[in-house]
Amino acid sequence: MTATKRPILQIVGYKNSGKTTLLCALVRKFRSEGVTVAAIKHDAHDFALDRPGTDTRKMAEAGADFVAITSPRRTAWTSSRPASLDELIGLAAHADLVLVEGFKDAPHPKLVLLRGEEDLPLLGLPNAAAAIVPQVREPRAIGLPVFSRDDIDGIFAFVRPFLSPSFEQNRK
Questions:
Q1: d(C-alpha 141, C-alpha 87), whole Å
Q2: Which of 158, 11, 169 shows the shortest CA–CA distance to 99?
Q3: N or C: which end of the chain has fewer CB within 10 A?
Q4: Which conformational region is residue 18 in: left (phi greater than 0), alpha (psi within -120 to 50 degrees), or beta?
Q5: How far is CA 106 from the centre of its chain?
Q6: Which residues contact 144 (CB under 8 A, 6 or more apart)?
Q7: pLDDT tens by residue, 7-50
Q8: Which long-range contacts (CB under 8 A, 24 or more apart) does 13-16 make?
Q9: Which residues are bridge partners to 39 per DSSP?
Q10: Crossing angle, helix 19-32 and helix 152-170, to 10 degrees?
Q11: Distance of alpha carbon 122 from its chain centroid, rounded?
């Protein structure tokens, strides 16, 4: 399966709009169908993955530019340089689906989370597929399907067929 054939869905919005909550809910729904899901998050700020005092943290503090750790059940790594979304998608070659939080300017289909009218400009992002709003009473005259942020089943029902052709093609 190549990165270009794999379905990729972005979840975008401003801080505290519910991106991670929605992404996690969709991961659970897809996993219940046996779909292998990769989740990739963009953080506009610096983040810390390693806890102070761990061996891998000590290695990074010593100056290693790339630090990896693996066990019989998982692998993790950090790098001292940023990675592009395409690079990260390439690392997730084992996944049937890639869910991406952020990377607003990337060219993949997007669920756009809106907190209010001030967020409406996000609908102009490339490949906006649907608007996710706090309450179902939000206006539907925005030119896209609109879902309540709490309507996980409705969002999943919309997204699943949207991505289906890629799933079926990859499973052959």
A1: 37
A2: 11
A3: C
A4: left
A5: 12
A6: 112, 123, 128, 129, 130, 131
A7: 999 999 999 999 999 999 999 999 999 999 999 998 766 666 67
A8: 13/112, 13/113, 13/114, 13/115, 13/119, 13/122, 13/132, 14/113, 14/115, 14/119, 14/122, 16/115
A9: 99
A10: 50
A11: 16
Task: Work out the angle at residue 129's Cα, subtended by the Cα atoms of residues 46 and 149, and round it to the nearest 5 degrees.
Answer: 70
Taking Cα atoms as reference points, which of 149, 108, 150 lies closest to residue 129? 108
Q: Which two tokens stand for residue 138?
A: 């939000």
Tokens representing 165 are 């052709």
Each residue of 132-166: pLDDT tens digit?
998 766 555 578 999 999 999 999 999 988 676 55
Length reported for the chain: 172
What's the pTM value of the predicted model, to 2 decimals? 0.84
Tokens representing 96 are 């049937």
Max Cα–Cα distance, the chain, nearest Å: 55
